[in-house]
């Protein structure tokens, strides 16, 4: 907010230096750009504005409609050809230059030719849609410098205000550091070429201060034209309105501009493929005459998993030998760590395997609890599976620590706001599930990570993992646990731990066990793993991850698979899963809404805030009777506490609840 207040004050005082009228000749605009790096024009487009705005907004509405139920990650690589999420709540929707007449873009073209040369080329165009609540972007430039000597611009961006919200400071006008197009030169500065990324850059990075920042607010039809190397960012949208800005970018004839969009998937293609999503015949354990809606308790194995487990059992051996069977087992360990590393977005030596997720939580709790003392405290969640509660309770009690709890709101969502008072300088751990295995509600664990202060985080991703792609880096997680048998693999557990924690903590282990993290010398065993691992389970876990990646190949809308990593293919696979489950969630909630006396626990008004798991109760019908009635109709579900009794008590329910869960 300090930058915004300064920008408000300074804009009126200093904007005249590079603010001109729409009648200004292109060569004068080019001269100002060379000097300041940015030019502001309040009346740039007039008669052509309505046509340009209509084309862009229609394209945007079509593209945004395609995103319903499809997970988007920040950046081109995590988004789609039709829509890119540039930063939270800030969407970039590209459009073809061919959608506009030469006359409508004549002014843009004239300025580009005066700045870049008469032979300049069209680079990219579209719309940036900033939703209410969009935070300010990180400061960045659009291109790297080629040399220490200052040269002319390589790319010119023309931003056009499509509505009057762009004239409102609260809506987040683009902020600039005038003249910084020279100072962003990484060849001469004390920073590197990552100035083009939204990282921890500030005006001070290139020798300026917040007092130099200008917020370029313009009315509808106004333009902000800037050099590709000027330091800038999209402002935070504190208003209640969308902010729509068109952009038209041009490049010098000798410059390639092929990295603006690195998306490798199409929403249109994904929608078509998801319509054919039918893989039931690939699961040998699925009943042919019934619907198995008990995915939260465990999934069926894909046939490739069954085959991988069978092969390893037939030809397995322990590691440490030099014969082919032993070396093959070492390969199994290495490959499994790589697969889970790709799934969780971590390094392979940060993966620990165990017999179950619960066993791994207990193992880490013993090690972490040994570092706690009286006066410390831990924060747990009443919404969690008991495997992520009781191990921490026992560890805290042994150490004499205080135990605090996050509760749930009436809709079953976790009261993350309570962490502002629950967490203090003595909090050593926050343990929470990414999603409730009872109600399917997805918890705001990204915010939990921002409120942790000195505490470590331990996230239970078991229920979340089959429904959404996990990113431990984006979560800023210290530990996270999953169970492959919940995402079509065999029974085992997998843990992510931050490397420095896995190296420094003291787990219970045998004297003869290796005391390092997985590497070639240890045959890829970890100091955290007790005894000989189940090589057949690890073979199956790798096959399960590969199956999820293959869903991306088949249903994820991939348009260019030439250089994709397994993580890329997993992104595509989970986008297909998300779109498919969105339809299931919407159809289920619409159907049960017509059933008198049926209560559905958890979030129901925001489908993205829940997994396809539903806890239900029917007035006057015992859960056991309801499950039996469903079974008689060839619908297989379960009832019970689902290992989270405190959740049902908080929601005012019986601790015996019917659960229906889709995979």
Give the helix tally.
18
Question: What's the assembly state of these chains?
Answer: single chain
Distance between the termini: 44 Å
Give the number of DSSP strands: 24
**Strand residue percentage:** 15-25%
Radius of gyration over C-alpha positions, nearest whole angstrom: 28 Å
Unreliable stretches, pLDDT < 50, 5 or more residues? Answer: 1-13
The largest pleated sheet is described as: 8 strands, mixed
Described by the principal axes of the CA atoms, the overall outline is globular
Q: Could you estimate the helical fraction of the residues in percent?
A: 25-40%
Strand order of the largest sheet: 1-2-9-6-11-5-4-3
The structural class is alpha+beta
Q: Mean pLDDT, as a whole number?
A: 92
Give structural notes.
- This protein is α+β, with helices and mostly antiparallel strands.
- Helices cover 31% and strands 17% of the residues.
- It contains 18 helices and 24 strands.
- It has an eight-stranded mixed sheet with strand order 1-2-9-6-11-5-4-3.
- Strand 16 (427-433), helix 12 and strand 17 form a beta-alpha-beta unit.
- Helix 2 crosses helix 4, helix 9 (357-369) packs parallel to helix 10 and helix 15 (535-555) crosses helix 16 (566-592).
- The longest helix is centred in the last third of the chain and has 27 residues, at 566-592.
- The radius of gyration is 28 Å and the shape is globular.
- The protein starts with a helix and ends with a strand.
- The model is unreliable at 1-13 (pLDDT under 50).
């Amino acid at each position: 907010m300090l930058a915004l207040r300064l920008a408000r004050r300074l804009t009126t005082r200093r904007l005249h230096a590079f603010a001109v009228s729409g009648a200004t000749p292109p060569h004068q605009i080019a001269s100002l750009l060379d000097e300041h790096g940015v030019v502001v024009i309040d009346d740039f487009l007039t008669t052509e504005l309505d046509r340009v705005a209509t084309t862009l907004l229609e394209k945007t509405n079509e593209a945004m409609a395609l995103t319903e139920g499809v997970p988007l990650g920040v950046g081109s690589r995590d988004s789609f050809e039709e829509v890119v999420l540039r930063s939270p709540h800030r969407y970039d929707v590209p459009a073809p230059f061919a959608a506009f007449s030469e006359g409508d873009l004549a002014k843009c073209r004239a300025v580009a030719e005066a700045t870049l040369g008469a032979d300049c080329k069209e680079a990219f165009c579209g719309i940036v849609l900033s939703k209410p609540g969009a935070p300010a972007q990180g400061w960045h430039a659009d291109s790297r410098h080629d040399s220490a000597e200052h040269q002319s611009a390589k790319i010119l961006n023309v931003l056009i205000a499509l509505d009057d919200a762009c004239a409102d400071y609260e809506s987040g006008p683009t902020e600039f550091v005038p003249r910084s197009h020279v100072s962003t030169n990484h060849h001469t500065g004390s920073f590197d070429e990552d100035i083009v990324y939204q990282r921890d850059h500030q005006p001070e990075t290139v020798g300026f201060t917040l007092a130099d920042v200008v917020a370029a607010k313009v009315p509808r039809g106004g333009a902000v034209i800037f050099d590709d190397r000027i330091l800038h960012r999209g402002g935070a949208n504190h208003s209640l309105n969308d902010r729509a800005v068109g952009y038209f970018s041009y490049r010098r004839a000798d410059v390639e501009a092929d990295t603006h969009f690195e998306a490798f998937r199409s929403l249109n293609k994904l929608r078509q493929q998801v319509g054919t999503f039918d893989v039931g015949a690939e699961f040998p354990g699925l009943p042919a005459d019934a619907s198995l809606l008990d995915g939260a308790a465990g999934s069926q194995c894909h046939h490739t998993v069954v085959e991988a487990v069978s092969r390893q059992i037939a030809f397995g051996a322990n590691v440490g030998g030099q014969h082919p069977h032993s070396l093959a087992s070492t390969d199994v360990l290495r490959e499994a760590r790589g697969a889970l590393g790709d799934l969780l977005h971590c390094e392979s030596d940060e993966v620990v395997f165990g017999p179950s997720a619960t066993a791994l939580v207990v193992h880490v709790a013993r090690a972490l609890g040994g570092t706690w003392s009286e006066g410390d405290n831990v924060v747990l969640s009443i919404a969690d599976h008991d495997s992520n509660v009781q191990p921490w309770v026992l560890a805290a009690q042994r150490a004499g620590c205080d135990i605090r709890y996050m509760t749930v709101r009436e809709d079953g969502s976790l009261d993350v706001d309570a962490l502002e008072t629950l967490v203090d300088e003595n909090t050593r751990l926050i343990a929470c599930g990414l999603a409730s295995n009872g109600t399917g509600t997805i918890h705001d664990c990204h915010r939990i990570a921002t409120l942790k202060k000195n505490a470590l985080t331990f996230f239970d991703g078991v229920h979340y993992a089959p429904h959404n792609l996990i990113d431990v880096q984006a979560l800023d997680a210290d530990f996270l646990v999953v169970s492959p048998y919940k995402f079509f693999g065999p029974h085992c557990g997998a843990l992510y731990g931050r490397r420095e924690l896995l190296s420094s903590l003291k787990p219970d282990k045998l004297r003869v066990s290796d005391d390092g993290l997985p590497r070639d010398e240890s045959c890829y065993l970890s100091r955290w793993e007790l005894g000989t691992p189940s090589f057949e389970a690890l073979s199956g876990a790798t096959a399960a991850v590969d199956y999820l990646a293959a869903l991306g190949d088949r249903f994820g809308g991939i348009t260019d698979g030439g250089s994709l990593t397994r993580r890329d293919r997993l992104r595509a696979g989970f986008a297909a899963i998300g779109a498919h489950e969105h339809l299931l969630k919407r159809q289920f909630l619409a159907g049960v809404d017509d059933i008198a006396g049926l209560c559905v626990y958890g979030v129901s008004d925001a489908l993205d805030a829940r997994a396809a798991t539903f806890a239900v109760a029917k007035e006057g019908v015992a859960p056991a009777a309801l499950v039996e009635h469903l079974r008689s109709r060839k619908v297989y579900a379960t009832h019970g506490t689902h290992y989270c009794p405190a959740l049902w008590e908080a929601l005012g329910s019986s601790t015996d609840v019917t659960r229906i869960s889709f995979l």
